[in-house]
Structures are given as C-alpha cells and as structure tokens.
UniProtKB/TrEMBL annotation:
One of its GO terms (molecular function) is actin binding. It comes from Chloroceryle aenea (American pygmy kingfisher). InterPro entries: MAP1 (IPR026074). PANTHER family: MICROTUBULE-ASSOCIATED PROTEIN (PTHR13843), MICROTUBULE-ASSOCIATED PROTEIN 1B (PTHR13843:SF5). GO terms for cellular component: cytosol; dendrite; microtubule; microtubule associated complex; neuronal cell body; synapse. Coiled coil: none annotated. This is MAP1B protein. GO terms for biological process: axonogenesis; dendrite development; microtubule cytoskeleton organization; regulation of microtubule depolymerization.
Length: 130
C-alpha cells in the first residue's frame, strides 16, 4: 500500500534442487547474487569459480563459505569439484582454513597444473571428464 517499494531479489528463490554436471558460479563469484540458497538448490559435480579482483571481493569468501553451508544440507555426499580460474589470495586462504570441512563434505579443489598454448598465448587449463 502507498509508496512502499519491494526490492527485487537476485538470489535463487527457495524450491526443489536442480542437478547439473557443470556450473559456472555467476558474476565472478560475487556474494550479491550467490548465497547459501544457490548451493542448496543448484547442485553440481563441478563448480567453476572465477574472479581475481580483491577490491570487488571476487571471488567472495562469503560465496565459498556458502558452498560449504549449502552442501552440508544435501541428502547425499556426492563428490564436488571446485575449479578456480585464478590463483587468488581469497581462494588460498579459504582452502587452507576450511580444508578439513571440505574433506568432510567430499569437496575437492582442483589446482591447474596444465598449460595450453594457442596462437602464441599460454594459459592454465583443467581437463574435466563428464
């Protein structure tokens, strides 16, 4: 009633889970769009975590923690692989500080040890078999 404005949420609304093989975490893993509800609903064997901008909080520690909290609520303990696209300080700290919980939840963080060379450029790469 009146001039009341309702903020539109960009987070995933509650509902039944969706199962996928590979998910790119949206918006460079920024916490404005990804929360615990995202990981409770969007269940994947592989999550790609992008972002290498600490000033913009990308990737966000809150998003990485949301993965742990959301996955803890899954009925099954299926293997989940997290694929970071950058070797960021946030990712390193999160990995070290939560390693035991990652193991308990059957989450593996994939480090890229391969390099692809294409047209005089080289970049890190990961092989994923679905």
């Amino acid at each position: 009633p009146g001039n009341t404005k309702v903020a539109k949420s960009t987070a995933v609304p509650p509902g039944p889970p969706v199962y996928l093989d590979l998910v790119y975490i949206p918006n460079h893993s920024n916490s404005k769009n990804v929360d615990v509800e995202f990981f409770k609903r969007v269940r994947s064997s592989y999550y790609v975590v992008s972002g290498n901008d600490s000033a913009a909080e990308e990737p966000s520690r809150a998003v990485l923690d949301s993965l742990l909290e959301g996955k803890a609520q899954w009925e099954s303990n299926m293997q989940v692989t997290l694929i970071p696209t950058y070797d960021s300080e946030v990712m390193k700290e999160w990995y070290q500080e939560t390693h035991e919980k990652q193991q308990d939840l059957n989450i593996m963080v994939l480090a890229s040890s391969s390099t692809v060379v294409m047209q005089d450029e080289s970049f890190p790469a990961c092989k994923i078999e679905l």
